[in-house]
Amino acid sequence: MFRRLVRGAAPLLLLLTTGAQAQSDAPIGPADLRQHIDRLASDRFQGRAPGTEGETLTIDYIAEQFRARGLEPAGEDGSWFQPIGLVERTTERHQVSWSADGRALPFDQTLIALQGREAEVRLDDAPVVFAGHGVRLPERGIDQLAGVDLQGAVVFVLLDAPDVPGFPPLAERVRMVAEAGAAAVIAVTGPDIQWSFITSNYQRPTTKLASQAVPPVVGAMPATAVQQLVDAAGASFERLLNEQPGSSFRAVALPIRADLEVRTAVTPYTTRNVVGRIRGSANSGENLLYLGHWDHFGLCRPEGEADRICNGAVDNASGIAAMIEIAGRLAAQPRTPRDILFLATTAEEMGLLGAEYFATHPTVPLSSIVAAINLDTIAIHPAGEPVAVIGRGNRALDAAVDETVAAVGRRLDTDDEAASFVQRQDGWALMRAGVPAIMVGGSFSNMALLNAFLSGDYHGPEDEAGPELVLDGAAEDSNLLVALGRRLADPAIYRPEASEQE
Ligand SMILES: [Zn+2]
Q: Does domain 87-266 have CATH number 3.50.30?
């Protein structure tokens, strides 16, 4: 593996003399980060898309860098890797007919979007049900799916959720309806969403974890089209929406039957998280976790364009570079009592899928992870920025962060602007699973710089490696995160409180 990395013009002597071992005690500097970013964001890595040759190059590089710094493999079966099944689906075509009492109901086929779980799904004469928001919350006495048999049914579910804290998002409600036996779950979209936005989303490939349960068919229809359909069948959509108030709502069988045919291109493939470990000195059975996503968008522009590669230098070669260097420093210093895990996740850009898989199939017990520190998009700011924290809310963890920031002579960002990013990063998948997870650094404290990146190079071919990449702030943050890790990996300094997050 290493041979591949140094072949061509790479000066082997230089690698040997400036390699990780030689500089393990010095603070992390911009040049340490740049060498990894230059490599990971090079055109040779083809934008690091999961399931491609770019993935192979990337995960081999990370594993080799971990190995060279003295980490041990902590993936599956003694390897560096955690294999993950993904499924990409792209709708090809579909046809629906609705009937009432054997009479065909008029319907405009452009007013429905569907996708099948398998390449070909057919439903014949399926019952049709309206299930409100499709929510089951037994602890609040809510069961909108009660009273009607959903087995094999086409089920309409309102997409918009009421403004109630903790109300399940659509994906979770779709799962509830599917678990009740529905053959198709169709989200009813309100006036806030342009129908063309939905249809263009359905025309793009979507990727999910193979382990995620999905109904045989998912879809969407605008509320106006559902209303016309229900009314044409002799019922009243208006009454359905208003007759049963709030939490007492029960699903209603509609006087409609459906025939449905969906063809979908379904491509399963395997991708990998990379996991390494520094053994602690105390055999505590507890872990501190650093994570960052290695994936990006690959070839993201059509054939013929001058630059087709989304290299993802800032997003997130920078986070991986920092993680490699942080791992190197922690491995070179006296061992902390707790173990420290380093997780390079896949498929973050597809919806935190690698982190979600780790959170649901952890390589160590989830309850043994005392804290998680995510590294994402950290190379946009100069040194000296205040330190923003995303994911505050666990008092013991917040205190450890505050003390570390003070100890290294930096300043905390006291506004809460960065909080809005909490669901857009891998730490969220761990937070949802009850692990206290934070992002800490300067790149989320200067909103002007962050917004300039997000509205500029972000997710495009211009997010490239090069001398203009600002790495002073990233290096300063990396050193802060080494100091923070030493505290969090020591039970005499930090013990997590039971999570107050949902
Ligand atoms: Zn991204």
A: yes
